[in-house]
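From the methods appendix. Each design record in this collection lists the tokenized structure first, followed by the designed amino acid sequence. Records were kept in a plain field format so they could be parsed without special tools. The example shown here is representative of the layout used throughout.

RECORD:
FOLD TOKENS (261 positions):
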């Protein structure tokens, strides 16, 4: 599970781009209890979703030219410029060149070999999200891709990520952790599209922890969201569901299984 002990390669930020920021604020407020706070006039409309006064995500209004509504997962890097260079060398791309965000840090948007976008956050004053791995906050991330081996090679080259196989009834799952941190620091996984029964295309999928997956799915529908995969039990993991907000930005929820011992 994710924590706020951010190290190189770990997810440390999350934000949503949407054509209707007020509508998104209403949806996520009704679903997770998040409140929205503007980052100020100098931030160009960007702001923060907060839970009990702690930042759990960012949000901004985007146009059709900037791409479809979506959530973007950011990963920590000590040098955003070096990460952008490494992306090109690893046959990926750079969608947004590294840029300073006031004194908060440096961000970039990269694309992996399959064209999947993701963010880089080089911390300045802002290290990352205030909370992770708790109810109502980011707890896991998952890459859905057609070529697991190619993706693993790319993210190893750019972020130093390590992979390991975890066995489950009926198959295995490729987990991700930061370099040198071991399996105890797993924060996400990789899913081959060919084995994904709820295939919605390649991309990074953020998971938000909840106390009741079924109630959250029902509430999302009431608020105008859609259900890509209904609440489903995964042995040893918990109860998961895949959702989308009213504008099409996809995310998942997880009620973690009780810890053994």
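DESIGN:
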């Amino acid at each position: 599970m994710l924590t706020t002990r951010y190290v190189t390669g770990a997810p440390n930020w999350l934000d949503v781009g949407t054509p209707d920021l007020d509508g998104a604020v209403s949806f996520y407020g009704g679903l997770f209890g998040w409140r929205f706070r503007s980052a100020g006039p100098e931030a160009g409309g960007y702001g923060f979703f907060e839970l009990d006064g702690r930042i759990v995500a960012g949000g901004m209004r985007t146009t059709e030219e900037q791409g479809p509504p979506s959530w973007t997962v950011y990963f920590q890097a000590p040098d955003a410029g070096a990460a952008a260079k490494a992306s090109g060398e690893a046959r990926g791309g750079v969608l947004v060149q590294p840029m300073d965000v006031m004194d908060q840090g440096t961000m970039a948007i990269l694309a992996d070999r399959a064209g999947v976008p993701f963010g880089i956050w080089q911390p300045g004053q802002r290290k990352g999200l205030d909370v992770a791995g708790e109810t109502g906050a980011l707890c896991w991330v998952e890459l859905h891709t057609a070529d697991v081996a190619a993706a693993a090679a790319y993210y190893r080259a750019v972020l130093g990520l390590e992979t390991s196989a975890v066995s489950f009834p009926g198959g295995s799952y490729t987990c991700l952790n930061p370099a040198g941190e071991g399996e105890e620091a797993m924060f996400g996984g990789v899913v081959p599209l060919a084995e994904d029964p709820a295939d919605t295309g390649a991309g990074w999928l953020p998971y938000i922890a909840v106390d009741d997956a079924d109630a959250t799915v029902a509430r999302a529908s009431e608020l105008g969201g859609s259900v890509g995969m209904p609440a489903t039990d995964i042995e040893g993991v918990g109860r998961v569901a895949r959702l989308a907000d009213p504008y099409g930005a996809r995310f998942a929820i997880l009620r973690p299984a009780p810890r053994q011992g």
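APPENDIX NOTE: The CA atoms of residues 64 and 204 lie 20 Å apart.
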